[in-house]
Amino acid sequence: MSADQLPASESRLYCFLPLLMGCLVFANSLGGDFVHDDLSAIRYNEDVTSSGGGASDGTGTSKSSIWSNDFWGTALSDVKSHKSYRPLTVLSFRWNYLVGGFNPFGYHVVNVALHGAVIITFARICRHRLQTTLRTSLMSASLFAIHSIHTEAVAGIVGRADILATLFFLLSFSCYHRLMEEGEERVGRQCFRWTSSVVLAWASLTAKEHGIAALPVALLFDVTSTSHVKLVDKRIRRAPYSSPTACWKISQFHRFTGTGIAIIALTLWRVSILNGQLPTFSDQDNPLALSHHFLTRVLSLLYLPAVNMGLLLAPVSLSYDWQTGSIPAIVTWSDGRNAASLLFYISAGLVAVVAFNRTNKIVIWSLLVMTVPMVPCSNLFYAVGFVVAERLLYMPSLGFCLLVGHGLDNLLIISENAGDVNQGMARAGFTHKIKRSSRAEGELCWPRLMRRLIFISTVVTATSLLTKTLVRNEEWSSRKTLFSSGLRAMPNNAKIHYNYANLQRDLGDWDQAMLHYRRAIQLWPSYSSAHNNLGTLLLGRSAGPTTDIERKKLVDEAERHFLQALAVHFRHVHARYNLAVINICYRHNLDKAISLLIDCLSLDAKHKPAEKLLNFLTIDRNRSSPSVQGSHQVNETGSTDKRSDDLHKKTSITMNDLLLILLEN
């Protein structure tokens, strides 16, 4: 009995096996903590933690700010905003927070549950919308369920944006495809399906930016998969039955027109949210797209799709960050990686031509899903803030997994019909006939060998992916394991060294922290944050027990790093603040210190340490201008006011008096 002839109950179990695999393989991610971007997007995001229920909660934050702020809680009108508008995802974090606070377990449970919803929706679309065999649906959905490239999206809490966008993308396509199907239905039901598709596409877009691809994929699939049908056969045709309630059917022309208008409307709405400003990124964020050399920029960006395909084919070296130094720029035509780019585009072009000529709906859908969602982040229209991002491959991997499943199923069909090779190839979709030799049928052994090879390679691949995914889940469980894994995978990435240095600083290992700050600066000399943080550690080291000569040496080096940070990034508030501390504690230049603190507040009016220190200095100078000794800053806690009163009574300020605000970074 073939897979397509299984009983209904067994067929349902066959489709739900990928769901079980996906939930089990990501079960070990449930114990993970908030890591990396989770901290900025959830723990420190007032849109998630604010309890306001109306236009304002009295503190300036409100529930409605979710719809006017970016993903990180910054107002979209702010020039510093990344313009990443994902209110639906932020709203889901807010619900998580209201139910379980900052317990990461609940956030991980929701991510795994949503991943399971995507798996089952994908399997059903393969089977019922694209009309794949049950075996293709099973293999494709199972590969999607366990693929290691999905670890960042599922095990990393902020990856929920990609999961939600993909779920609504699939649901939108499902509604649209039902509209495409043959059937004489009332126009009201057809309009409802079309409206549902548009609303779900909007939901995908508000979950993450590449959700904008939902309607374009549906429309392009509609056009290409029905290209053999005359577009305007009858723009509006009467149902074949003649009755007083006979209804009018929406034609392809109206479907194309309405969907095209909806795509334009959604695009214009999303562009209007930018408030006339594109997000600005530094060379450090995306050195390939922001290269000043045209040839380097073009060759490097053409190579990135081949890198993404390589990650889908062999997710061996995975990293939470792919910025500075991860992928060296291609500067000449003689670079061997250009051959990989050429091979990728030729292969993709050949597959596309064959699929469109034969109107193979499965391959057409796969190619569309692999390419269209990547257009917004392709650097084609504007430079994005990353080089490669693994979680962005969550949606395109749907097409990749379906291609793999479809290809394996075709090979199995050919091998199963070895008695009549031409019949097997015809079932697999190939029309070319093969002339058979005069050998007896019993002498044919290649089909059996092929089935064994397919079985062995499938088991080996599945085992490798399962193992890699389980390991990656553990790596995403804490800052320490995640940042350590990044060092192993991308030793030439300056940002990874910087993040690892921050971790070691927080753990109290300043020697390791300074070592990796220096390594980050060596890899990226204009890394302003690394200069500033290294300077704070040097300044802190100077406050310890040391000789005057050593102290002067440490302070001078710290000052050089602060000045270098300002030379690279003129608006660097923390570097100015730390220079003010040096001028107070070592240079005894209060005028310059006050000027620097005023500059800090002009750049960031919410910089509390600068505000408190400036208030202290101005009050102090009005009193008696006491001499200032030591090296530090002011307390950022609520208990500092009483301490400040005590300090004003002293004739000098010591190192310990300002210790509570030393490491401002």
User: Portion of residues in helices?
Assistant: 55-70%
- Strand proportion, as a percent range, falls in under 5%
Mean pLDDT: 82
Largest β sheet strand count, sense and barrel closure: 2 strands, antiparallel
Summed up, the helix count is 26
Look at the helices and sheets and give the structural class. mainly alpha
H/E series: HHHHHHHHHHEEHHHHHHHHHHHHHHHEHE
Strand order of the largest sheet: 1-2
What gap, in angstroms, lies between the N and C termini? 67 Å
- Low-confidence residue ranges: 53-63, 229-249, 439-443, 624-656, 659-665
What is the overall shape? globular
Give me the count of strands: 4
Radius of gyration, rounded?
Answer: 30 Å
What do you see in this structure?
There is one protein chain. The protein is built from 26 helices and four strands. It has 665 residues and is mainly α. α26 (640-648) links the parallel β3 and β4. The model is unreliable at 53-63, 229-249, 439-443, 624-656 and 659-665 (pLDDT under 50).
Summarize the helices and strands and which ones pair or pack:
Elements lengths: L7 H18 L11 H7 L2 H4 L37 H14 L3 H26 L4 H13 L4 H5 L4 H21 L6 H21 L6 H12 L10 E3 L9 E3 L1 H21 L21 H20 L23 H22 L2 H11 L25 H20 L4 H7 L18 H30 L3 H11 L4 H14 L2 H14 L4 H15 L5 H21 L4 H13 L4 H14 L4 H16 L3 E2 L11 H9 L3 E2 L12
Parallel strand pairs: 3-4
Antiparallel strand pairs: 1-2
Overview in brief:
The protein has 665 residues and is mainly alpha-helical. It has 26 helices and four strands.
Protein traits:
globular, mainly alpha, 26 helices, 4 strands, two-stranded parallel ribbon, 60% helix, 2% strand, 665 residues
